[in-house]
Write the C-alpha cells for this entry.
Amino acid sequence: MTPVLEVRAVTKRFPGVRALDAVDMAVLPGEVHALVGENGAGKSTLIKVLTGVYRADEGEVHYRGEPVSFARPLDAQRAGISTIYQEVNLIPLMSVARNLFLGREPRTRFGLLDIGRMNRDAGETLGRYGIDVDVTRPLRSTSLGTQQMVALARAVAIDAKVLVMDEPTSSLEPREVRTLFDVVRRLREQGLAVVYVSHRLDELYELCQRVTVLRDGRVVHTGPLEGLARLALVSHMLGRDISQVRREGLTGFTGDHALADGETPVLRVEGLTKRHQLHDVSFDVRAGEVTGLGGLLGSGRSETAKAIVGALPLDEGTVTVNGRRLRRLSPAAAIRAGIALLPEDRKAEGIIPDLSVRENIVLAAMPRLARAGIVTRAKQDAIVETFMTRLRIKAAGPEQRVAELSGGNQQKVLLARWLCLHPKVLLLDEPTRGIDVGAKAEVQKLVDELAAQGLAVVLISSDLEELVEGADRVVVLRSGAVAGELVGDEVTEDAILATLVAP
C-alpha cells in the first residue's frame, strides 16, 4: 500500500542542536500510527516539519506520492493535513458553531453570514461525534472534552487525508476519552491516516497499529505494535536494556519516605470553602510525607491547591504552616511562608515563554538575591547552573528561550524556579502531565528525594498508578469535598475508585 504521508531522511538543525537526524517514517491510509519518544526526542519538531511550521534542512516530505514543502501551516491544512494540539487553539469567546466553521462560514445568497444554517449544521456535525451541546454557547463554557471534539470535527471537516493528534487526551475524563477513541476508529475505517502522539501506553496499544520511536532526533524503532511488549517499547524510548527497565519499573517512585517524628504537621488546611467549588476541605501534611489528592476532573483538586496559595479567594478556611496560621491568604504570603505551587497548566500559568531558561528559573528568587535592588549575574548563573545540572534540564544553554524546550524540560525549569527558594511545602498539580516516561520517572524520583530531605509534598494526579506508588496518604475529593482518606496499605487503585463512587 502506498503511504499517504512519508518522511525520507529528514534532518532539522537549530543552533547547537540537531533536532532531527535523517528521520524516516511512513503513514498508510486507514492507519493510526503512534509517534513516541522522550521529551526532546524530536516529536514536536517532526510534526512542525510535516505541517509547514519548519522547513527541513535535508531530506523530503512526500504527501500522496508527491514531494511537498509547505511554506506555512495553512498550506498544509489546505492540502489535507490537519493538526490537533494538546492545548486546544480555538477562540474561547466565540460560540461552538463559529469555532467549528471559522474561516468557512455558510453565507446567504446576499453574502451575509447564515447563522441559522451554521448552527444547524454544527449541531448535526457534533451529533455524529456523539456530542450533545448548545452550539450557540461560548466555547470556553464547555468542557475540555467538548472543546477537543470541536477541534477534531473542525480538522476533519476540511476534507483531511491526514490527522495529526498531539496528546489529545491529556485533559480529558475517561468518558470523553472513549468518545474520542470511537471517533478516531470511525475515521480510520473511512481511510483517514492518523499520526497519534501520546505518552500513555494504554492508549497506544488500544488505538494504534504501528509505531515509530524517536530518541535524540533519530528513529530507533519502527514497526507493528502488536507483539511488541510494553517493556520493549519503553526500552526503545529510554535507550535502556529491558532488564534495567524491569528492575527499575515504569515510575521513579520508591514509596519509601521517612516521616519526621512529632505531632505538628508542616501544612494544615482546615475548612477550605468556596461557594460552588470547595466544601470544608481539611487535611494535614507532615515533613517527609507525600500526600496525594485524587479525584475526577472537576472534583476540586486544582482549586484546593490554588486556595492554599491564595490564588483562589475563600469564603472560609485557614492555612497553617509549621504551626503558624497565615492571617492573609495571598500568593505573596504563601511564598513567604514557604509554600510553592507547580500549576497544572505550565504554559498558561507557569513558564514565561519569551524569557530564557535562566530568567524563568531565577524569577521567583530575585527579591531574595537582590542587594540594594541589584542582582548580580554571577548569583543568577550559580543558581541556574546548579539546578540545570541537578534536574538534568536539556537545553542548548541557559539563554535559550524556554518556549523552545520540550514539555518535560519546561516542567523541570518550573521545578527549579521553586526549589531555589528552599520551600517547606511543595504543591505539585499534575507534575507529569504530557511528559514522556523518561522525564516522568525523573520528576517522580525527584519527588522522592525532596520528601527524603524533609519537604512536605502534596501530589495532585489523575494517574492512579502515580498516586498509589508515590503517595503515603491519599485524600480523595468528590464534588469539591473530601470523600475519604486512605493511608499506607489502604492506598490501592481499587480503594481509590471505590471511594470515588461511594454514595
